Amino acid sequence: QVQLVESGGGLVQPGGSLRLSCAASGSTFSINAMGWYRQAPGKQRELVAAITSRGGTRYTNSLEGRFTISRDRAKDTVYLQMVSLKPEDTAVYYCSAGPNSDYSGMDYWGKGTLVTVSS
User: Fold this and answer.
1) Which of 9, 23, 38, 49 gives 91 a disulfide partner, CB atoms 3.0 to 4.6 angstroms apart?
2) Gap between the Cα atoms of 29 and 91, Å rounded
3) Contact indicator for 22, 95 with CB cutoff of 8 Å
4) Burial class (CB in 10 A: 0-12, 13-18, 19+), 90
5) Among candidates 90, 97, 41, 43, which has minimal Cα distance to 69?
6) How many CB atoms lie under 10 A from the CB of residue 96?
7) How far is CA 21 from CA 25, 43, 61, in A?
């Protein structure tokens, strides 16, 4: 089993920045891909960004280059740097992990961290 714990969410003004962190523990040897998803009120959960153990990345097209995913394999931690935040980025952000490099089977989930973008 793998446990994922997110941190770094909070309230930020439009145009501001935040960095989310997700630390994995347990059977981390089984992890290949790690990623961030988000779920806004009344909307479905959607992929934000994901990264493989070799550093390959995937982003949702709507981000316009504002978010950057990175990973510290030594610390079993994945980060999401978010800049130029907009009110529509408000959501619960979830960390996810799975064994496959094609991002399938992302079966491990954290409890989420709330990001609120508001003035």
Assistant:
1) 38
2) 30
3) yes
4) middle
5) 97
6) 22
7) 13, 23, 22
Can you tell me which residue has the tokens 């960095």?
19
- Residues 6 or more apart from 79 whose CB is under 8 A from it? 19, 20, 21, 22, 69, 70, 71, 72
DSSP sequence for 10-50: EEE-TT--EEEEEEEEESGGG--EEEEEEE-TTS--EEEEE
> What is residue 7's predicted lDDT score, i.e. its pLDDT?
97
Cα distance between the two ends of the chain: 40
Token output for 65: 């280059």
Summarised one tens digit per residue, pLDDT across range 47-75 is 999 999 999 999 998 887 899 999 999 99
CA atoms within 13 Å, Cβ hemisphere of 86:
9
- Across the chain, which distance is largest between two alpha carbons, in Å? 42
Query: Residue for token digits 């931690």?
Result: 77
Contact assessment for residue 64 and residue 58, using Cβ atoms and an 8 Å cutoff: no
